[in-house]
Amino acid sequence: MPDNRLQARKTRLLVPALLGTLASSLINLLVLFPSPGLAESVLGVVRSSDNSADWIKITTRLSESGISRYKPINLEDIKSAADLAGVSVLFLPNIETLSAVQVKAIEEWMKQGGRLIATGPVGRSSPALVRQSLRSLLGAYWAFPLTQATTPEPRLRCRDIACKTSTNWVPPEQANATVKGGVLIPADMNSQTAAIWKQSDGSSAVVASDRATYLGWRWGTDGSPELDRVWMQASLTRWGGAVGPVTDVARSGQGSGESRGGAPVPAPEGRISRSTPVNPSPPSTLFPPFPPSSLSPSGPVPENFTDPSEQSAPPGLDVEASANKPISTIEAYLMRQELTNLLGRFESSLIAANSANVAINLNAANFAPQLVAATNNMGGGVANRPPVIQGAAAGAIAQAKQVLQEFDRLIAAQNYTAARQQWLQARQQLWRNYPTEGQRVGAEIRAVWLDRGSIVKAGSEQGLAAIFDRLAQAGINTVFFETLNAGYPIYPSQIAPQQNPLIVGWDPLESAVKLAHERGIELHAWIWAFATGNKRHNALLGLPGDYPGPVLSAYPDWANIDNQGRRQHVNDGKFYLDPANKEARSYLLQIIGEISSKYKVDGLQLDYIRYPFQDPNLGFSFGYGKAAREQFQQIAGVDPVKLSPDSGDLWRKWTEFKTEQINSFVAEVSQFLRQNHPRTILSAAVFPHPESQRIYKIQQNWEVWARRGDVDLVVPMTYALDTNRLQRIAQPLAREQNLGPTLIAPAVKLLQLPEIVAIDQIQALRDLPTGGYSIFAVETITNNLQSFFSRTQGQTPVRSQSANGPIPYRQPFEAAAVRYTALKQEWSLLLATNQLRISDSELKGLRSQSDELAQALSALAANPSGDKLGNARRLLGAFESQFKNSMRLHAMENSYQVQTWQNRLASLEMLLRYGERVELNRR
């Protein structure tokens, strides 16, 4: 339910319109009769060489849409965010060419609260890096033009909450209004399809993100004027009015939520007495009061607020083999991409499984009969190649390749039923025969979260031992053990007010460290940093839902507070500490110090290392704790509770202030550990959303921590319900410009995933330039998955934990050498079976460079030094620059495979960067 002020404002908008005509729609009224506050806001319409020929058409269409007040802006005049000062909504009509400077200026302006409407093939003629940045800003990109005119069909009947809340602004369908547009591809987890092209099997026509609306046609230049009008009006109405700022809305909303994050660290002062009572305390009184209704423990959340905390990216294609419906250009592209990538992961897994015990031999193709017996049941050959790898896997590969060859022909012949049926059959065969045997070479992070619920259920060290036995058998080498949750430590603390009441008579952390080390597993204490109370946990303890937990009960002034004065997050039910509060930070540092000193943990993982989820554009924000307000007022001369996103530079400074509280705390934790426990690995569970979105919504800028080397490992929660989506989310995160000298191990969330899809997602992460993978969580590892892990990476009587290879964050140089050896084994296998397409001269050059690089990596691993690192880097760079050319023939039929090898070479670069910091410069 919206609050009274928001409802009153809506009424003011509706009454004049209803008096004028009963036939007008709500959207028209909101645009034609804005409130006085909205009328002061400015719509900026950008003109460039791309749309200058159609400028009169565009401005005429704006006038026809009831929009007479706007500010024309020349694209070449946009050089910084200051050039967009005073603009609330920026309209990019059909602009294909933008520069990096212009996109950067728009990005900075959006960080200050600006909202964007874009139409047509935005940025299509821009440089690649600019296009990538635009994808992040818009939440989507233009893929292909449609071949014929059709109608955008609004998604008015979404099933999931995220879709409902981000598309409830769309106008009704204009049945007879058509336009020749293009298909948009949502680019991240926060993007939702607001409309699909009619009779296109779900191709996106309109995509909405938290701060942008993207219309997939050239607005104002062709097609139906009515279509342009209703969608422009609706897009503006999203933001609160015709061209409205968020002034009226920003103070009235609430709500937010999340999934996981966290952080801890130790310090010497501010200890809490263990005798402190745990009864709930009322919130403290802050200097200027919040609105009278703001201290309510619950309240309305803005209707459009979407809390991504417990969401996974939705699945991709849903192909049905029923009617002979046409297959659109974009659907054909996506079907081809999905099958190609699945086939690539299938073959990648197959090659890895077959090459683990192959002797390295990069001489000319030399068929090795001894490989036949070892690989008969594990893989498949390819048509017209020696059938060295036999069985059903070979048939599945051949079938998929055949379908891909025939797919375009069937579509051209309009035989859509056959195209769909063959595609589905090929995909099913790949799933059914997916490689689940054969050892996978180690030298990767294989991590799993062991949650509080599983610990409580274990009940004793004996029960916990059974869990660690299974993890050891599965080849897991890293356990994130939930140690501080909802304000309660899992162990008997001398600092925290109370041990978790669900743990009685034993110390799970002490037991876990012992059990892990006995099995060759590293134990990392997983702690919630700034989330400290939990409604769900209260229910387990029989406490009231609004109980803030033992820490805030003792120190209510430590609370993080929303813009209505509430301490409890109305969406996720949690309470949060104010990251600007020095006493709260000191307390967390003491907890970290206690864990690091008392227990021989191998690492610490910061979770909830962020602010609560919020959406200032919808009038809901956090950060107004007593300490934060006092500090910011001293810096900026204004109480932040008086600010809103349209406060311009002050709002930007407020967001930067909050972001810096998180950044500086991570730096403090890092410094503490390096001074006192230098062998302790510091990791952080983080969100994979685009950087600008994260900063705006949760003030989490983990790229800064990574580039500074404050953390050893980032673990993005790249949860997705299909593998292609997972790859699209995870791949951009692993770039050097994001990570610097830090490792990355993206995560797979097993809940709701079919077992074979989970296996496929782990393979996908192995095919990217990562340090390994993480699994959430122990309790969702089924018996079948346990069996798969045990067969492919677990301990056996003849394969000890050490045989699985070094852990990258512990022995990065050795891990690089082992990984490179595994690559050479794969090439050796394919050469021996005549499946590597490469000329003799290129093979000779590859072999020479390969041997030299292998020797350099081995020498570096054996005795690290700056000179050896420099030599290894030089040789790796030279090898990478030549590799693509050497593999050009093989890439013609095996592009996914070659890209995977390039990714794995990039992972060697990552290991060398990390190794330089921890092996040469720090330890």
Oligomer: single chain
Count of helical stretches:
32
Cα-atom Rg, whole angstroms? 29 Å
Q: Major β-sheet, in short? A: 10 strands, mixed
Tell me the span between the first and last alpha carbons: 56 Å
Helicity range: 40-55%
Low-confidence stretches: 1-40, 157-165, 242-300, 365-388, 797-803
Range of strand content? 5-15%
Instruction: Please identify the structural class as seen in this structure.
Output: alpha/beta
Number of E strands: 22
Mean pLDDT: 83
Shape, principal axes of CA atoms? globular
Would you write up a description of this structure?
The protein is an alpha/beta fold and 923 residues long. Strands 11, 12, 13, 14, 17, 18, 19, 20, 21 and 22 form a 10-stranded mixed sheet that branches. The chain has an 8-stranded mixed sheet with strand order 2-1-3-4-10-9-8-6. A two-stranded antiparallel sheet has the order 5-7. Strand 1, helix 4 and strand 2 form a beta-alpha-beta unit. Helix 5 packs parallel to helix 6, helix 10 packs across helix 32 and helix 28 runs antiparallel to helix 32. It is globular and about 75 Å long. The protein starts with a helix and ends with a helix. The relative contact order is 0.10.
Which descriptors would you attach to this protein?
single chain; 923 residues; alpha/beta; 11% strand
